[in-house]
Design a protein that fits this description.
The protein is of the alpha+beta class and 188 residues long. 32% of the residues lie in helices and 34% in strands. It has an eight-stranded mixed sheet with strand order 1-2-3-4-5-6-8-7, with helices on both faces.
Length: 188
């Protein structure tokens, strides 16, 4: 569990189902165009419980860290460290979403900073990547606030909202974040 003020990041649980569906349901129009999809629908977990089992299994195997975001004790979103690669790489990607009702309050930049600091200074990863659709101005603003540089552009990178979509690529290494990203936010 990670905490910073009113923000808590904790592992996802099966009992998050009601809150997850309530927030996702209210935000379907706002989040739907950024949601990952699968070209093969059979690859998607059939239930919330199956998704949680898959995420926690991947976490136990060291391939993922799935968190929910709570603000003042209320479920407001999710953030995950995905595709953790060890060997000679020590990198991962981060993906996130938040309830539109609390967007713009600085919660997501702090949550992303908390996760990246945890990855670098506790887990020992070297590089974190974040891929964002070019039209997703709110998500781009998150990485800009954190000073995470853009490193490239990937055409047809991820299957999002039913099609292969282009993404802007952002990345940061532990050398770029010596004092931590939470510290970076505090100095802005």
């Amino acid at each position: 569990m990670l905490r910073d003020g009113a923000i808590t990041l904790r592992p996802i649980r099966r009992r998050d189902q009601r809150a997850w569906f309530e927030v996702r349901g209210r935000n379907q129009e706002w989040l739907g165009r950024w949601d990952g999809t699968a070209p093969d629908p059979s690859a998607i977990p059939r239930s919330f419980a199956a998704m949680v089992r898959e995420h926690l299994s991947a976490a136990r195997a060291g391939r993922m860290m799935p968190f929910v975001i709570e603000y003042d004790g209320v479920f407001v979103g999710a953030i995950a460290v995905n595709n953790i690669v060890w060997g000679s790489a020590y990198f991962a990607s981060v993906g996130y979403w938040i309830d539109q009702a609390v967007a713009g309050r600085g919660i997501m930049p702090r949550a992303v900073a908390m996760v990246i600091d945890h990855c670098f200074f506790v887990v020992g990863l070297h590089r974190i990547e974040i891929s964002i659709r070019p039209e997703n101005a709110a998500s781009v603003r998150v990485v800009e606030k954190l000073g995470i540089p853009e490193v490239g552009y990937s055409p047809r990178y991820l299957h999002i909202d039913g099609a292969w979509r282009d993404h802007r690529m952002f990345a940061i290494t532990v050398e770029d974040a010596r004092n931590g990203l939470l510290s970076h936010l505090s100095h802005k």
